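Changelog-adjacent note: as of this version, every example in the card shows the full chain rather than a window. The one below runs 330 residues end to end.
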Amino acid sequence: MSFGSMVDETCGLVPKLAPDFAKTLVNRAWRDVRRQCLWSFLLFDANWTSPAIVNAGTVTVTQGQNTVTFNAAASAAINAVAFSPPSQIIQRQFRVGIGTVYNIWGLDATNPSAVVLTLDRIYQEPSGTNVPYSISQCYYPSPMLDFWQWLSIRDIINYNELATNKTRAWLDFQDPQRSLFFIPTHVVPYQVDQNPASLTPGYLMHELWGPPQYVLTYQLYGLRKGVDLVNASDTLPTQVGEDCVMELVKGKAYEWAEANKQDSRMTGSDFRFLITGAKAEYRRLFREYRMQDRAAVDNYSRRLRRGWSYNTLNGWYNSAASVAGSPLPW
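Full-length structure tokens:
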């Protein structure tokens, strides 16, 4: 059944239920179904790739301004990667020494020998001419706007599973200057992408620590929240039947009708029994569809959730790749 058909059926449940409100009820019910358990259609695979550091040449910075200007050598290095994979320059971060990490929000390459980058805020450190700098990517956007949470993030090359259970406060305590550079071991939430020129506006960003300085790809597994139905032709995933969602919609529509019984067309009606019946039928159908989908979900999540303590609490060695790791103090 399509979204349009579900809306039509909802409008026919009670008198004077507006089509726009029926759309709202259908999507409210659909969101409830998505939130109530882990469904296989909410699982995702994705990737991040960290770009190589850019630090050729020098930069001129002025305290109190939000733009920085690069010399010819630095400008050539920036222009070479500005719009190239794995990420555009406006998705990366700029800093001088161990100073503040600034997000890059704009690029002006009108003069290819004197590229100007716009930062996300005013440069606060002392002014300087022809000083060393670095451009790398510390913050990575979620794979999709409706991202929910991680199941696993893996550095396949270094046989490393990154921890995702730490907070920003913990990271600020461990490395307040973000000066520990090594094979990344943790991913922590950062903030919503606020760059007006970004390709991912509104996406939750994540900080990868220790900051990677070279090209490395990460395998991402996680959960998404799912999206609402929009077009009349939109349909539900095959894992959830429309009969299940519609029983929940009926309960919500009958609740609205019970609250608006003063309308002459519904005077004398008692929708309470219909509400109870719809909710009971919804619970039955929900259990059935959940049982049918559970095998796929359990196989996916159990296969991934093997934990990351094997390479953090204990030392480890991979003879095939000649890669070793020692226990970390956290």
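Structural remarks: The CA atoms of residues 169 and 176 lie 9 Å apart.
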